UniProtKB/TrEMBL annotation:
<dbReference type="InterPro" id="IPR023485">
    <property type="entry name" value="Ptyr_pPase"/>
</dbReference>
<dbReference type="Pfam" id="PF01451">
    <property type="entry name" value="LMWPc"/>
</dbReference>
<protein>
    <submittedName>
        <fullName>Low molecular weight phosphotyrosine phosphatase family protein</fullName>
    </submittedName>
</protein>
<feature type="active site" description="Nucleophile">
    <location>
        <position position="9"/>
    </location>
</feature>
<dbReference type="InterPro" id="IPR017867">
    <property type="entry name" value="Tyr_phospatase_low_mol_wt"/>
</dbReference>
<feature type="active site">
    <location>
        <position position="15"/>
    </location>
</feature>
<feature type="active site" description="Proton donor">
    <location>
        <position position="117"/>
    </location>
</feature>
<keyword id="KW-0378">Hydrolase</keyword>
<feature type="domain" description="Phosphotyrosine protein phosphatase I">
    <location>
        <begin position="3"/>
        <end position="143"/>
    </location>
</feature>
<dbReference type="GO" id="GO:0004725">
    <property type="term" value="F:protein tyrosine phosphatase activity"/>
</dbReference>
<comment type="similarity">
    <text>Belongs to the low molecular weight phosphotyrosine protein phosphatase family.</text>
</comment>
<dbReference type="InterPro" id="IPR036196">
    <property type="entry name" value="Ptyr_pPase_sf"/>
</dbReference>
<keyword id="KW-0904">Protein phosphatase</keyword>
<dbReference type="InterPro" id="IPR050438">
    <property type="entry name" value="LMW_PTPase"/>
</dbReference>
Length: 145
């Protein structure tokens, strides 16, 4: 297995599991993807709307269980990709040894924007977030190619 990517969001139940599932589908076996959360409760399932939105795209994240960020997770990956600039900044402050491999998702292309947190939003908000993540992942894929 080649490149290893860790997606980060706040609770590891919405954005980063969606990014993980979509990236796994988009990048296939060439890249190993996983996710974690800045403030995650260990073992929580992905949100029901995240599950539903990805199921609409034939991506199954039903086995996902949340986990909190830890240094050992960062050690074993090539890229740490948070969903926001603020998360990137916090990770770089707490784990300065991984600055060189931390870059937020919106910074891989021309967008330079954060992935909005859909938590508490409608199914349509989750669809919009998944679409946004998908577009940013295509830019990431193009950059990594």
């Amino acid at each position: 297995m080649g490149l290893k990517i860790l997606f980060i969001c706040t609770g590891n139940t919405c954005r980063s599991p969606m990014a993980e599932g979509l990236a796994r589908e988009m990048l296939g076996d060439t890249v190993q993807v996983s996710s974690a959360g800045m403030e995650a409760w260990e073992g929580a399932e992905a949100s029901c709307y995240a599950l539903e939105v990805l199921k609409e795209q034939n991506v199954d994240i039903s086995k996902h269980r949340s986990r909190k960020i830890r240094a050992d997770l960062f050690e074993e990956v090539d890229w740490i990709i948070p969903m926001t600039r603020t998360q990137e900044k916090i990770i770089r402050q707490i784990f300065p040894q991984y600055i060189h491999k931390t870059r937020y998702l919106g910074d891989w292309g021309q967008r330079k924007q954060d992935v909005r947190d859909p938590w508490g939003g409608s199914l349509e908000v989750y669809r919009q977030t998944a679409q946004e993540i998908g577009e940013m992942l295509r830019e990431l894929r193009d950059h990594l190619s």
